Amino acid sequence: MKVLSQRSASALQCVLICFLVLPTQLFSQTVTSRISLNQLGFYNFSPKTAVVTGPVNAVNFYITSTNLRDTLYTGTLGPEVKSAYSNTITKQAVFSTFTRSGSYVVVVPGVGHSYVFEIGNGVNSLAAISTIKGYYYQRVSMPLEEKFAGKWHRSAGHPDAVVYIHASAATKERPEGTIISSPGGWYDAGDYNKYIVNSGVSMGTIFSAYEDFPEYFKTLNTNIPESNDAIPDILNEALYNLRWMLTMQDPNDGGVYNKCTNAAFDGMVMPGITKAPRYVVQKGTAATLDFAAVTAQAARIFKQYKRQFPGLADSCLLAATKAWQWAVDHPAMEYNQGAINQVNKPEISTGGYGDRTFNDEWLWAAAELFVTTKEARYSTVVNEQMKHGVGLPSWANVGMLGYYTYLRFATQLPAAARDTALRMKERILNIANGYLQGVKTNAFATVMGQSARDFNWGGNSNAANQGNLLIKAYQLTGEKHYVDHALTNLDYLLGRNATGYCFVTGLGSKSPMHPHHRPSVGDGIIEPVPGLLVGGPNPGMQDKCQYEFTEPETAYADIDCSYASNEIAINWNAPMVYLANAVEALKTKVGYVSKQ
Ligand code: 9MR
């Protein structure tokens, strides 16, 4: 590979390049989705790969100006690779040594040219900001004003000032039909309900982003109503959902309801016009422990903002302690919607988030409570739970969030807990090092997609969470190659994948236009609400919609019918927020952009 023209290139060189080096057919090239790449672009000094799919005769590829006139770099395509999880064949175009800032396309003769991408020092900043802003658009009980929401401005959704205690949640103090108020929060996903279990993992991930990069977030502006106050925007956004979560705790016993919901899903209409009754449904151990973890973490974070929010940190800690006690008294209360519906009316058919194992919730809640309070009763539970394994975070598996928190504060922990943190570190590095193995043989050169299991309902969040685990591995070791590998998954999510889609609405050249997202369907605006990560390829295809492709890495349909591949959800956006922002926060330290 050789660089044909640099900043210092003379006019003569340009003439030679344009008229002698380029094959003439190049000028007739058209844009093609067969060249997949991060559609936002690359930092000047980060690794850069595009992937050509399908049969290719060309030997070389070119990086040219967007008008295709100037060739700035010529490279050789890599060998043909057959993908493990679809019939896709690929060749990789690596151009990491091309570092000049600007807008370009990748040209492959006989195939066409890629979408326009940038090389520069802020390429992921739009992804970082817009995915946080995505949560603003999910806010439930307030109008979204035009100055913040642009053309997606809308009136308030569900007020949730009148919410009934469902029969499954009735107690002596709050019998069936008691009215409580549970306003605010974020809509969970494409539907209009609010679920504590899924809020738990989402908030834990967002709070972790803040706790890992507090300096970076201090100045990040997402243009929300609270942007001008003294609190980082990411915390203001999380606070909107936290205040709702606090309403979901029964003050009489500390237990936490699983969800605030309609009995059945609303139609594909705007939120403000739906009037179905809302219920809080049965308390559960997973919901209560997730709540304890989030409020313990919030107590720690908002302690720094006592002046702005007097009493908030204390209220959160009290809520966390009461929730913990309820869980101790009800250590395995499963949310089983089928069983609930056999004995209660009305039947509830909205999302279940019915977790059956609680080891991971115990570990996470105990870890957050221990780091916040340093009380030994919590570290004892963390140690007990270490006998179980750990996996990537998901709504049903939150133990890793406890590991992240222990490790973040390891140096401030007592000696015994530091030993536990060392074991956690070992496990994380084991997983991280496993990820590195398969990248070389992966058809898209990503960490994502090394196992068929990566492609499930919301699989895009696996890509993001794998990236985040690699960021943690970097934080634990200082080894930059972990960030390079995390970046392969950011590239995956923003376009370098077998579907050719940039999976965040409103970003890149080819992104989802028809997500399963009620406001995006109901608002009459062509572009969907921006900043939302769709679920991604899912060969389960549980929605039974029409899929053009059905293999693990291609089973994605950009149609609003497809809730199994094209819905959006707060627990999928959260790791995307983490990944995009972590990379932006670390870009100078790891040398992706030059220190100015
Ligand atoms: O993300 C959830 C996925 O892991 C489950 O397999 C699926 C079926 O139970 O539900 C998904 O969560 C949905 C929730 O139940 C309701 N709101 C939309 C969520 C995303 O599709």
Describe the structure.
The structure is a single chain. With 596 residues, this protein is an alpha+beta fold. Among the domains are: 6-120, Immunoglobulins (Immunoglobulin-like, Sandwich), CATH 2.60.40.10; 357-424. It is 37% helix and 10% strand. It contains 17 helices and 15 strands. The strands form three sheets. Strands 2, 4, 5, 8, 9 and 10 form a six-stranded mixed β-sheet that branches. It has a five-stranded mixed β-sheet with strand order 12-11-15-14-13. It has a four-stranded antiparallel β-sheet with strand order 1-3-7-6, with no helix packed on it. Ligand 9MR binds at residues 188-189, 191, 351-353, 457-458, 563, 567, 569.
Which key phrases capture this entry?
single chain, 596 residues, alpha+beta, Immunoglobulin-like, 6-stranded mixed β-sheet, 5-stranded mixed β-sheet, 17 helices, 10% strand, globular, disordered N terminus, binds ligand 9MR
